[in-house]
Amino acid sequence: MKRLLFILVSFPLLTFSQPKLTVPSLDNIIQFYQYKPATPDLTPEAMTTSHGRIGFYVFKPPGYNPDSTYSYPLVIFLHGVGERGNGTTELSMILNSSLAQMIANGASMNFNFRGRKSSFVILMPQMSKEYFNWQNFYSDAMIAYARQHLKIDTNRIFLSGWSLGGGGAWKYVTTSPENAHRIAGIVVAGPAPDYENLSYIAKENVAVWAHHAKDDASVPLHLTTDAIGEINKYSPAIRARVSYYRSGGHPFTGNAPFDTLNTYLYPNVYEWMTGTSRKNSLATNQPPVPIAGKDTAITVPEAICLNGTGSYDLNDVIIRYEWKMVAGPASSRLSIQQPDRPVTTVSGLELGDYTFRLTVEDEFGASRFSDVRVHVGLPAGGANAVPYVEAGRDTVITTSELTLRCYTKDYDGRVLSCRWRQLSGPVPISIAQHGNWALVQHMTEEGVYRIELTGIDNHQPAGVGKDTISISRLTSLPVYVLYRPGKSYPDRKGGIPLRMCLLLLYVGFLFVPIYVIYVASGCLQLLIHFVPDRQYKYELQPAKLFYPRDVPPF
């Protein structure tokens, strides 16, 4: 009682004794994903089983036609621990995260990858709160429902899940060979491990694509690494694969792997599914056909676009692209922008002849390569070559000044001068130039400043090369948000215990500046308001302003 009285007395003193500070909007710190109301393509359903009633969502892609000759691949999505519910009034909680949220926000689930089209039917059951791990009967019920009520391709049934749901996917295909035989592939993201016999995956040729953030504080990385390694010890026809993410923590893996674009992965998991089927086999597999493009010639200092989108695989799918230079002049400036994508840009080329190699690999491990040759020369007819100019990489700062260094080169003469100038920004800035470097000052306001570097050579008329750099000026205040898993504070009755809120706020007032508390308390209020009745995990962690994608959603 005395402690509570002390908190209540000191709380207003600490609050009003601090100077008033401008607090950034929470919208600049974190994205709160909200789902849309169910559409005719996303409908709630229920079925009664020997284990009780199961509530679930059925998603049918636009243009779904049960009378067509096309059979739809099926994806069963298992949610995380926070989305458990009664299957009726709490069913919409499923739509708060990961793949379910993307579908509710308008994802069509129609894909056309290298000429192979797929439109996915999605089933999303809700697990009861009486269970702490996914039970296999949920997946059995979804398969039975799909066979009876939907036009599905039984050779292309995929089981996917995030966190606890990923553990449920592992569990289902490792419980028995019969279970594994029903599934074409699993996509598991940041899974809470729950598997029994990984050899069933290898023996039944279940395709596996696991995903894990290297800084996951909730589920140790080695659990996924060990599982993938164990499966591949059995030399499966389809080697289990894993994608690691450098940062983002546990929540990030609920979204990145299920992204319906190619923001993080190429191919993405659905494009991978377009070519994955239980009909495929190692005995009948045909290796992919790489097409690196036609030989070409460019003039310095142009960049070259390499395009391998013509590559294809007749029976499954290309899962790996790799561009590399195998011959050509040594160049410290040469850069292949995205060597793991079919289309990439190469810059920093010197005069001479280059050979670039595209290697493609399918999910059975078969690979082939194709070469493309690039000649880099001076302009025809003795025309002047434009200088090569590098302004530097885009950067983020928290101070009001920055030193920039440039690189310039002229292939048929010399660079006489370099000039820096501001193109845009929140306020005018000053640029003091000293040879190949410049001091940029007075970036006093937050925002993005764009600066142009111009290089002029010694020809008449002069050749002019240009490049730009973006400088993002952020706040210098140590802003914090609650987003990464930390200590758990469960409340089975719903919401967060009032005493825990007071404790978190009180500790914050004692040890961090007041503006941090405004942001943190705002997050708590939003969480209590938007997502009641679930288990929460909180920890104060730093986050960048103006970069919501750097902060994983809850």
What does this structure look like?
- With 554 residues, the protein is α/β, with parallel strands linked by helices.
- The protein has 11 helices and 28 strands.
- It has helices at residues 2-16, 98-104, 136-149, 164-175, 177-182, 199-203, 221-233, 249-252, 269-274, 498-511, 514-530; strands at 42-49, 52-59, 72-78, 110-113, 116-119, 121-125, 152-162, 185-189, 207-213, 241-245, 296-299, 304-307, 318-327, 335-336, 343-347, 352-362, 367-377, 388-390, 395-397, 402-405, 407-409, 415-424, 430-434, 437-441, 447-457, 464-473, 480-489, 536-542.
- The two termini are 34 Å apart.
Concise structural overview:
The chain has 554 residues and is α/β, with parallel strands linked by helices. It has 11 helices and 28 strands. The protein is 20% helix and 33% strand.
Itemize the secondary structure elements and their pairings.
Blueprint: H1 2-16, E1 42-49, E2 52-59, E3 72-78, H2 98-104, E4 110-113, E5 116-119, E6 121-125, H3 136-149, E7 152-162, H4 164-175, H5 177-182, E8 185-189, H6 199-203, E9 207-213, H7 221-233, E10 241-245, H8 249-252, H9 269-274, E11 296-299, E12 304-307, E13 318-327, E14 335-336, E15 343-347, E16 352-362, E17 367-377, E18 388-390, E19 395-397, E20 402-405, E21 407-409, E22 415-424, E23 430-434, E24 437-441, E25 447-457, E26 464-473, E27 480-489, H10 498-511, H11 514-530, E28 536-542
Helix pairs in contact: 1-10, 10-11
Essential attributes:
554 residues, alpha/beta, 20% helix, elongated
Q: What is the beta-strand fraction?
A: 25-35%
Anisotropy-based shape: elongated
Q: Give the proportion of residues in helices.
A: 10-25%
- What is the number of helical segments per DSSP (H or I, 4+ residues)? 11
Mean pLDDT reading: 81
- Helix/strand-derived category reads alpha/beta
* Order of the strands making up the biggest sheet: 1-2-6-3-7-8-9-10
Q: Which blocks of ≥5 consecutive residues have pLDDT under 50?
A: 2-40, 477-554
Query: What is the number of E strands?
Result: 28
Distance between the termini: 34 Å
Radius of gyration: 28 Å
Biggest sheet statistics: 8 strands, mixed
